[in-house]
Design goal:
heterodimer; A: alpha/beta; four-stranded antiparallel sheet; 10 helices; globular; B: mainly alpha; ABC transporter involved in vitamin B12 uptake, BtuC; two-stranded antiparallel sheet; 4 strands; ABC transporter ATP-binding protein (chain A); amino-acid transport (chain A)
Chain lengths: ~240, ~300
């Protein structure tokens, strides 16, 4: 079986500074794969390159069998990759419902869009209660829900979530993580970038530890969760 | 002729022109944060495009029937020039320091003026623009020239169409998204390059409509007409809150009315006799801008730029 996403020796630089220094990994359909690591490890850079916002210096990205060389970001969305960016980046001056509709920008099936908006409201009832409210008025956690709901609106084959728990209260973080496992149970393929290694590894099939632009350790979520070096470096154990 | 209704009518006619041109400044700024200082010249070439169509029509062709064709001609010329400028002058500089596209815009503005001056037949002096015959209409106590009805009808029609486009169509919503957060707009599948071209094109089309109104109002078009009109329209866009399309039209009308009332009445105020009359109207327009920016830096309908979380 070929992987949905295959990354081979990917290198990305900002000017002369190389932020991602040759990483390889893959995501199989139906899997949850997580990239963990500290700030500056290159996780966000990796996701932004996969979705076409950044251009790689070298390496290959294959999505759904197609190489993504020189494919602009908006066409990558059309291929079935959705990216919920770090810092949520909802459209603050639009209503919640309009934000969700923008997630379905490339779709033409009106009935299907309405159904999926309803699905987002079922997943996150608070969004449904405030559908006509400007998205900028939502709390951080609610904005995160909206960003995830919006990413799902394109009916992606691969959902990429960048730091969904960043800046959230512990309760909200739990809620977001519970939603991710719910999505996983529904069969959604997810590439999850997280600083909260404990939460991410507990629900991931595969995990990769990134340090200053490289993958230093890979394994199943459970393996990494019980790996001594991971526990020391990322789970705060002595 | 210093009655209030007449001054208000004059202000409204002028303001509608400013507003239509201001849309181009505000849309482009809202999406790429560029002040397109060549927009005044986009307006100017639209006037020449419309004139060219009129001159190409057989003698005896009625002006009323010619107007739609002239609009089409002006719009085509303006849109072509504006989108070519975007593609070949501004797009390569999109990631350059802010000053580079700004200077490019000023250079483009001069180049367009000189190109028309040099190559358009007899454009070294103002060229006369066709006029409607017949006496003015009397509306609510004001005399309105037949030709001025054009801009008074065209401006609201354009605004309603634009409002519909931006809020109800898919590309319109894509435009709003691109203005708010371009990278995230790409992640929604929005082709932001195309949205930017659309913003330039709509602004250019509105400027061409304004240029037809300007020609009918003034009876002439000239290669320099974009300079002061562009500056005023830019002022209107800032006054209304740059980035806000309704603000641009509001700013235009407020500016037009202020100019017209200043010309009509400031000279009547004791000890202000010196500052009345048409020669001072540009001064009052910019005084108004300064006052509004002191009191409300974001403009009349502008929003304070909120930090993104």
């Amino acid at each position: 079986m070929t992987a949905l996403l295959e990354v081979e020796d990917l290198r990305v630089a900002y000017g002369k500074i190389e932020a991602v220094k040759g990483i390889s990994f893959s995501v199989e359909a139906g899997q949850v794969v997580t990239l963990i690591g500290t700030n500056g490890a290159g996780k966000t850079t990796t996701l932004r390159t996969l979705s076409g916002l950044l251009e790689p210096l070298a390496g290959q990205i294959k999505f759904d069998g197609k190489p993504l060389k020189n494919v602009p970001a908006h066409k990558i969305v059309a291929l079935g990759m959705a990216h919920s960016p770090e810092g949520r980046h909802i459209f603050p001056r639009m209503t919640i419902e309009d934000n969700l509709r923008l997630g379905a920008y490339l779709r033409d099936d009106k009935a299907g869009i309405e159904k999926d908006i309803q699905r987002a409201y079922d997943l996150f009832p608070i969004l449904g209660e405030r559908r006509k409210q400007a998205a900028g008025t939502l709390s951080g956690g609610e904005q995160q829900m909206l960003a995830m709901g919006r990413a799902l609106m394109s009916q992606p084959k691969l959902l990429m979530l960048d730091e969904p728990s960043m800046g959230l209260s512990p309760i909200m973080m739990q809620k977001i993580m519970a939603t991710i496992s719910e999505l996983k149970a529904q069969g959604t393929t997810i590439l999850l970038v997280e600083q909260n290694a404990q939460a991410a590894l507990s629900l991931a099939d595969q995990g990769h530890v990134m340090e200053i632009g490289k993958i230093v350790l890979s394994g199943t979520g459970q393996d990494l969760l019980h790996d001594e070096s991971v526990r020391k470096a990322y789970l705060g154990e002595d | 002729m210093h009655e209030l209704p007449q001054q208000l009518a004059n202000g409204l006619i002028l303001g509608a022109m400013y507003g239509l041109i201001a849309i181009g400044y505000t849309m482009v700024y809202g999406i790429v944060q560029l002040i397109n200082f060549a927009h005044g010249e986009i307006f100017m070439v639209g006037g020449f495009g419309a004139l060219t169509v009129f001159l190409a029509l057989p003698a005896g062709f009625s002006l009323l029937a010619a107007i739609p064709l002239m609009i089409i001609g002006g719009v085509i010329v303006s849109v072509l020039v504006a989108t070519a400028a975007e593609r070949f002058a501004y797009r390569p500089l999109r990631n350059a320091p802010r000053l580079a596209p700004l200077i490019t815009a000023i250079g483009l503005s001069l180049a367009l003026q000189q190109a028309v001056w040099k190559w358009y037949p007899d454009a070294k002096k103002d060229r006369s623009f066709p006029q409607f015959d017949g006496s003015p209409f009397h509306i609510l106590g004001a005399n309105i020239q037949r030709g001025d009805l054009f801009i008074l009808i065209a401006a609201p029609v354009c605004m309603i169409a634009l409002g519909f486009y931006v809020t109800k169509t898919r590309t319109g919503r894509g435009m709003q998204a691109t203005a708010q957060d371009p990278d995230t707009a790409k992640l929604m599948g929005i082709n932001t390059d195309r949205i930017i071209v659309m913003a330039f094109a709509i602004g250019a089309a509105f400027a061409a409509v304004a240029a037809v109104g300007y020609g009918l109002h003034n009876g002439q078009v000239g290669f320099r007409m974009g300079f002061i009109m562009g500056l005023k329209a830019f002022t209107a866009a800032v006054l209304g809150g740059i980035g806000n399309i309704y603000g641009a039209m509001l700013g235009g009308i407020v500016l037009g009315l202020a100019e017209s009332l200043a010309v009509g009445y400031i000279g009547n105020i004791p000890s202000m006799e010196l500052f009345g009359g048409g020669a001072w109207k540009d001064v009052w327009a910019f005084v108004l801008l300064i006052v509004v920016l002191l009191v409300r830096p974001q403009g009349l309908l502008g929003e304070r730029v909120a930090d993104r979380a």
